[in-house]
UniProtKB/TrEMBL annotation:
Name listed for the protein in its UniProt record: Metallophosphoesterase
Native source species: Pseudomonas qingdaonensis
InterPro entries assigned: Ap4A_hydrolase, Calcineurin-like_PHP, Metallo-depent_PP-like
Gene3D superfamilies: 3.60.21.10
Parts of the chain that traverse the membrane: none
Pfam families: Metallophos
Sequence ranges assigned to domain Calcineurin-like phosphoesterase in this UniProt record: 17-124
């Protein structure tokens, strides 16, 4: 896994971010269609958790194979990796969290998914006309983005990975401190009724996998695009 992936500016179309998908790719496609997403020039950036809970989890591989789709590794991808690689995993919790479809696959199919999930970085960053935008699944463990980048230059520690993929501290504490070195940090992981911005951190998971309301954010303008509810 490349812990951090840098993406060049899109000089032809739009860069759009979306919250957790959780196996609802058909709903996501409908939201993209509604805003005129054009895969020939536009790109979609995901904060991870592509799978579990929804009916279309097996489509994750096809989406990850698209040149216009970029996604960080969420905690649900990490759970699948832990299962296949023999790391500690509470399988009852995993199944209750929507991982039953994966646990019920044969070993060969599980290995295909994990091979793709392991290629998903913990962090993505891309240039926009107004400055650098970062994406993580849950939160940044440091006050400065560059500090995280330095940690991710080697093998990320378990503590750093846990914050990046699991932390809800910022929302729980209402922390409005900015992540320095970024114009904006885009995260998901915690489902909210509406997009919430704390400092320069955008919490983008509005439960598209549950309510059908995916929030799509134009990363150049930091404006939400109108999608069906």
């Amino acid at each position: 896994m490349s812990a951090r992936v840098q993406v060049r500016a899109n000089r032809r179309g739009r860069d759009i971010a979306v919250g957790d998908v959780h196996g609802h790719f058909q709903r996501l496609q409908q939201a993209l269609d509604a805003v005129g997403f054009d895969p020939a020039i536009d790109r979609l950036f995901s904060v991870g958790d592509l799978v579990d809970r929804g009916p279309d989890s097996e489509q994750a591989l096809a989406w990850l194979d698209q040149p216009w789709f970029h996604a960080v590794q969420g905690n649900h991808e990490a759970l699948a990796i832990a299962h296949v690689r023999g790391h500690w995993l509470d399988q009852a919790m995993y199944r209750a969290s929507g991982g039953g479809w994966f646990l019920d696959l044969d070993a060969q199919a599980q290995a295909r998914f994990v091979a793709a999930f392991e290629q998903m970085p913990l962090a993505l960053e891309l240039q926009t006309p107004e400055g650098l935008v970062g994406l993580l699944h849950a939160d940044c463990p440091f006050a400065h983005w560059q500090t995280l980048c330095e940690h991710l230059a080697g093998e990320p520690s378990a503590d750093v990975q846990e914050v990046c993929q699991w932390s809800r501290r910022r929302l729980q504490q209402g922390d409005t401190g900015e992540v320095q070195g970024l114009r904006a940090l885009i995260v998901g992981h915690t489902t909210l009724r509406e997009v919430k911005v704390l400092g320069n951190v955008w919490h983008l998971d509005t439960g598209g996998w549950a309510s059908g309301h995916f929030s799509l954010l134009d990363l150049a303008s930091l404006e939400l695009l109108q999608t069906p509810r």
